[in-house]
Design a protein that fits this description.
The protein is built from no helices and 19 strands. By secondary structure, the chain is an all-beta fold.
C-alpha cells in the first residue's frame, strides 16, 4: 500500500460513530517504540490497524470491514502478533449514526458480552451498560457533565454500578484545556472521599507524574516517568508516601 494511505498515531480508538480514529499523529521518521499504524482505503477508511510495542516482536493487528460506502465500521477482527484470531467485534449504529451497541465474539462467533450505549441531546455519551450473553447485567457506567459546554472527552464524574445495578461509587474528574486528566477522585456510594490521584504532563502531553493520596490528603505513593527525544518512556520510578524509592524500571 502506498505511503499516502498510511498514518501513525500514539493511540487509536473507535469513536461514537463507529469510525476508526487516531490520536496524537506521529511522523514516520520519528516513531517511538510504541505506536499505532493505520492503513486506509480509497474512501479514507481505516482497513487495518497494527499495534507495535517495545516489549514484543512484531505487531498485533485488526482488520476492519464495512458495508457499502459507510464510514462506520461493521466488523473488526482482532489478531495477535502470531496471526491467531483472538476475537471479533460487531458495531451497530442508530439512524443518527451513533453507536448504540457493540459486541465481542470469540473465534467461533459466540457472543462473549455486549455493550449498550446511550447519549444526551448533544450526542455526548452518558451511559454504557455491559451485558452477559444471557442478557444479564454485568456492570453499568453513567457519565455526568456539569455544563452543556463540556466536551464529551471531559465528563465531570462517572457513576459505577455493579451487576445488581446498585451504585458502588463515583469518580470525579478534573481536566486541563488539552483534555489531559489532572485529578481523579473516588467517592463511595455515600459520597465520602476514599482516595484520589493527581497527574502531571510535559509540553507534549506525555504523563510525567502520578500521585495517589488518602482521603486525608496524605500521599500514599507516587510515580515519575521520563522520556527520550522520540518520546519513548525510558525510566519509571515508584516512591512510597515518605519519598523513599521503592522500584525503578529503565529501558
Amino acid at each position: 500500500m502506498s505511503n499516502e494511505h498510511v498514518k501513525y498515531f500514539r493511540i487509536g480508538k473507535i469513536n461514537k460513530n463507529a469510525i476508526v480514529t487516531g490520536m496524537w499523529e506521529l511522523h514516520a521518521d520519528k516513531l517511538p517504540q510504541d505506536y499505532i499504524k493505520y492503513f486506509y482505503d480509497d474512501k479514507n477508511r481505516v482497513i487495518r490497524f497494527e499495534k507495535y510495542e517495545r516489549e514484543f516482536p512484531g505487531a498485533s493487528y485488526r482488520i476492519y470491514k464495512y458495508e457499502g460506502d459507510s464510514q462506520s465500521v461493521k466488523i473488526s477482527e482482532w489478531y495477535d502478533r502470531f496471526g491467531n484470531l483472538k476475537g471479533i467485534h460487531r458495531y451497530y449504529c442508530d439512524e443518527k449514526g451513533l453507536m448504540v451497541k457493540r459486541e465481542e465474539l470469540d473465534g467461533q462467533n459466540n457472543v462473549k458480552y455486549y455493550i449498550l450505549s446511550q447519549y444526551d441531546e448533544q450526542e455526548r455519551l452518558i451511559e454504557e451498560a455491559w451485558h452477559n450473553p444471557d442478557d444479564s447485567l454485568d456492570k453499568r457506567d453513567r457519565l455526568i457533565y456539569d455544563s452543556p459546554d463540556l466536551s464529551e472527552l471531559t465528563p465531570s464524574s462517572e457513576e459505577k454500578y455493579n451487576s445488581s445495578d446498585e451504585l458502588d461509587g463515583v469518580f470525579h474528574y478534573k481536566w486541563d484545556e488539552r483534555y489531559n486528566l489532572l485529578e481523579k477522585k473516588w467517592c463511595n456510594k455515600d459520597g465520602e472521599l476514599k482516595s484520589y490521584y493527581t497527574y502531571k504532563y510535559n509540553d507534549k502531553d506525555l504523563l510525567t507524574w502520578i500521585g495517589l493520596y488518602h482521603e486525608d490528603d496524605t500521599l500514599q505513593m507516587s510515580q515519575n516517568f521520563t522520556y527520550d527525544e522520540k518520546d519513548n518512556k525510558v525510566s519509571e520510578e515508584i516512591f512510597d508516601g515518605k519519598g523513599n524509592l521503592v522500584k525503578r524500571n529503565t529501558w
